[in-house]
């Protein structure tokens, strides 16, 4: 029988906990004996809008009031409105803002959720503005040139910037040097409410599947399959993995990118 003893007694902050991958992750953690502080726009322990600076500060303040935490799972996101604000600036504010609390844990872990959309060619000046922390400039550049995000718009830009932020931060004294594992999970197309509109149109569904095939597991994937990986990366069992962008996508990244980075 599989043991989940490593989760008991640990406290996890899960953003985006009300639906999709966030809800699946929160459910798995609770089943395994962990305490979960769920954060979302609604139907959560903490209600906060990560697309705004005020919402980000509120989330950090309210989590801090709960006391010590062991892991932050920054899953909240979306592509319809405020894609840069929520998917990049909201995620980074969550991770950076809660890092001091994580540092008090004996086994601190942090995971952010990206996407295979981060593989799309995007406008580098907008990515750089994100990494520079200049939200006004990043949003202004995207509004002036919406096509800079390619097929996935600002969502893909935000996820690429998030990948790069995690890669840059993971081995620094503040993160890896303090014993905090920091990783990214990048799902492919998963059956979530956010993807429902996309998958409802048969023509669009076929186009997406052809452009980003998922030969292992099928199209779309299941939220709980991605949640399993997020839970493990955020657990005490993860003793040696940090700074990684791990694609949980049924083989989509391998099919699209091939051996580009291994030649």
At the fold tier of CATH, the topology name is Rossmann fold
Major β-sheet strand ordering = 3-2-1-4-5-6-7
Segments where pLDDT lies below 50 for 5+ residues? none
Radius of gyration: 17 Å
Q: Hey, roughly how much beta strand do the residues contain?
A: 5-15%
CATH superfamily grouping: NAD(P)-binding Rossmann-like Domain
Briefly characterize the structure.
The protein has 263 residues and is an alpha/beta fold.
Structure description:
This protein is an alpha/beta fold and 263 residues long. Helices cover 44% and strands 13% of the residues. The chain has a single domain (5-190, 222-249), classed as Rossmann fold (3-Layer(aba) Sandwich), CATH 3.40.50.720. The chain is built from 10 helices and 7 strands. Helix 2 (53-66) packs parallel to helix 3 and helix 3 runs parallel beside helix 6. The chain is globular and about 45 Å long.
Task: Jot down its keywords.
single chain; 263 residues; alpha/beta; Rossmann fold; seven-stranded parallel beta sheet; 44% helix
SSE arrangement:
Layout: E1 11-15, H1 20-31, E2 35-40, E3 46-47, H2 53-66, E4 71-74, H3 83-102, E5 109-113, H4 124-131, H5 135-144, H6 154-169, E6 181-187, H7 193-200, H8 202-211, H9 223-233, E7 245-248, H10 252-257
Parallel strand pairs: 1-2, 1-4, 2-3, 4-5, 5-6, 6-7
Helix pairs in contact: 1-9, 2-3, 3-6, 4-5, 4-6
